[in-house]
Amino acid sequence: MKIKTKAALFCAATTLAAGAAHAQGGAETTGPYISGGYNYLDFDEELGGDAAVHGVTARGGWQFSRFFAVESDITFGVDDGGFDFNGDEDDLDFDDNNDGFFDDVIAGPGDLGLDYMIGGYGRFILPVSDRLDISARAGYAFAEIDSTVQTLGGNELVFGGSDDGPAFGASAAYDFTENLSLRADYTHYEFGDANAESFGVNLEVKFGG
């Protein structure tokens, strides 16, 4: 399994650990919040390759204090991502050309679709100014993924099902008003058969005071 390390995540974590002294004053809205927006996901399948999927995300959370919140979100795929599959008959236990041997390579174009992905997180917030916050979050996510591959032997292979694993990332939010902000997120997902990187932009509405 290919593991990706993101320097931006470590920078955000370092800033959170060392930068509390830079937080500026100003009352922060606490209580419930919801958001929705666009998400770009890059999946790295163990039995395939990289596939880019476009999705929409809805999120709900509760901010308990200036520095901590809990939240959950759900993402639905709206556009399948294409990838070039390159596997092995023996690994798949499938004889693509029906020659009685399992030592051939299975290759062909594939499509990856995200049915849905849901996750729950704890979020640690660092106020940079009265209007700008950066944060780190960590939690667990569950996804339903489907992949279809058209092999050179003329067969269609379908992979997929549910997958789950830890998720962590960083975000930045700019407050237009006390109750309305624009938030950009990066999240890394460590699933069993596929890793994923997510980049999202959401409009967030806060209901607390």
Q: Describe it for me?
A:
The chain is mainly β. Helices cover 8% and strands 65% of the residues. The chain has two helices and nine strands. It has helices at 7-18, 89-92; strands at 31-45, 50-63, 68-79, 81-88, 105-127, 132-150, 156-175, 180-190, 194-206. Strands 1-2-3-5-6-7-8-9 form an eight-stranded antiparallel beta barrel.
List the helices and strands and how they pair.
Elements (H helix, E strand, L loop, with lengths): L6 H12 L12 E15 L4 E14 L4 E12 L1 E8 H4 L12 E23 L4 E19 L5 E20 L4 E11 L3 E13 L3
Antiparallel strand pairs: 1-2, 1-9, 2-3, 3-5, 4-5, 5-6, 6-7, 7-8, 8-9
| Classification by helices and strands | mainly beta
Number of helices: 2
Question: Tell me, what's the shape?
Answer: elongated
> What fraction of residues sit in β-strands?
over 45%
What is the terminal separation in angstroms? 45 Å
Provide keyphrases for this structure.
65% strand, mainly beta, disordered N terminus, 209 residues
Short description:
With 209 residues, this protein is mainly beta. It has helices at residues 7-18, 89-92, and strands spanning 31-45, 50-63, 68-79, 81-88, 105-127, 132-150, 156-175, 180-190, 194-206.
